[in-house]
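Retro notes
What went well: the complex prediction finally ran end to end.
Inputs used:
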Amino acid sequence: MADAIRKRELARGERLLPGVFRLRLPLPWPGVPHGNAWAVASGDGFVLFDTGIHAPGSLADLERALEMCGLALRDVRLLVCTHAHSDHYGQAATIIERSGAELWMHPNYEHMSHGAADPDAALVRRLEIARQSGVPEEPLRRYAAERARNRESGIAAIVEPDHPLLAGVIVETDLGPWTVYETPGHAPSHVCLFQPEHRLLISGDHLLGRVFPFFDYGYSPDPVGEFVRSLDVIEALDARLCLPGHGRTFTDVHAHIEANRALVGEHLSDTLAVLGGGEPLTAFEIMPRVHGANLSPMTAQWLLTETLSMLLHLEVAGRAVRIAGEPERWTAAG
Ligand SMILES: [Zn+2]
Ligand SMILES: [Zn+2]
């Protein structure tokens, strides 16, 4: 009911710099009301960075935001996705169909195609991870029932990239070339793009104005370690202005990188402190001791993934030990 009557956010488009436009696109997610796509002039059209989610009305949202900038969908000359999450890639199929543009994206997008191609198998896998982490049966049943009601992936169709966005690939625009930097962690397919003359960074979800770490758990050996190394990668660029995947642009890029490092360090040391308590604990038991007990079902799901990613990082670093069983428990090493 609350959802049905919730006032829908409006799409907006605005000029950030000559030839650079922010397209602010609504998202159907509580707590994350919108995301950004970026349009950068290129020849007789523009390069579109990210797509917004595929949902009822989402194409009209994108067209409205473009129109506010004097742009049209048919003039997309190249579509670049910072990563394969639904809010950055969801409308890719529709956009390339309407515009005839190529799609460029990093090849490690199995974290998306796995779930989008077979939602049932992806749900079974998520439930297995949750059960293994000590989540009780009752919330698991509720979660499964909720997913069965709402099976939308937010992705119009899986389209394979025409060109792999690997480190060093150049995207040409009227503003100058943008260089690709691989920045896995938030998602294995994540890249950032840097324009050196203007020192602009299109950061996707790797670096946001609000520090809000999320790790796509289950598709790489150590997402937290990758994320921290990816912070080093973009720090070396010395960007002047960050164009993030959500929220406003910001200039204090270095401070945001530091804040991310500090938060990850804090969660790691809090997790270690909990593990040092003696008795082996499940991830589900560790989560509220690190993050507090006041968790909504939505944040609990996100924080369980965060907790598991932290535990995995500590395990890789030799500081935590996993005790096999149903459920799995964790303790400090040594
Ligand atoms: Zn994302
Ligand atoms: Zn996002």
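What we learned: Residues 83, 85, 88, 186-187, 205 surround zinc ion (ligand 1) (CB under 6 Å).
What to try next: split runs per interface for comparison.
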